[in-house]
Write a structure and sequence with these properties.
The structure is a single chain. The protein is an alpha+beta fold. It has eight helices and four strands; from the N terminus they run H-H-H-H-H-H-E-H-E-E-E-H. Helix 1 runs antiparallel to helix 2, helix 2 packs antiparallel against helix 6 and helix 4 runs antiparallel to helix 5.
């Protein structure tokens, strides 16, 4: 996995720099998502790996798949990736680009794991509290895990806030065993 990220990072950084200079980060985000979806398709992935499919054929395939969204710069990126045999890295390139874009915009990922389903109002209220605490805008995803018994566990970057019943029981067990 580290090798794939190592391969993808220079391309993601180059597209990010270009998008930032031109003020087109949102457009590149959409384009890279489209290209990543094409590259992740099982049939396309098989063609990318097929030894009898040329880089020129792959370029035409990707251009046709993204259609009108492909401008000259996108065409250049597709051509560069195809000639360097890096089209399979598009999902990683898109993910790294999104990470850089969120960093530029001051947005962090927040995962809220709840013991019970949360209403939109509850999620919005919790998100506001978390944004105040972390001094950043958050992109929130919510999942339900009944094993928490009650409460929530929040993960933002490398920080974990565990306000779940399961977390408190585990902390008590550790304290009693020490």
């Amino acid at each position: 996995m580290a090798e794939t990220v190592t391969i993808a990072r220079p391309y993601a950084e180059a597209v990010f720099r270009l998008g930032r200079e031109q003020g087109t980060l949102a457009g590149w985000s959409t384009t890279l998502d489209m290209l990543a979806a094409v590259a992740a398709n099982e049939e396309i992935a098989a063609l990318i790996k097929h030894p009898n499919v040329t880089a020129a054929q792959l370029v035409e395939l990707f251009r046709a798949a993204v259609g009108a969204a492909a401008g000259d710069t996108t065409d250049n990126l597709i051509g560069l990736l195809a000639s360097n045999d890096r089209l399979a890295s598009l999902p990683e390139i898109a993910a790294l680009f999104e990470e850089m874009k969120r960093g530029e915009e001051g947005v962090k990922e927040a995962e809220i794991v709840s013991a019970f389903p949360m209403s939109d109002d509850q999620v919005a209220a919790l998100a506001r509290q978390l944004e105040d605490r972390f001094k950043a805008r958050l992109k929130v995803t919510v999942t339900v895990d009944p094993s928490l018994l009650g409460g929530v566990r929040v993960v933002v970057g490398d920080k974990v806030l565990d306000a779940s019943v399961r977390g408190k029981l585990d902390a008590m067990r550790t304290a009693l065993n020490s």
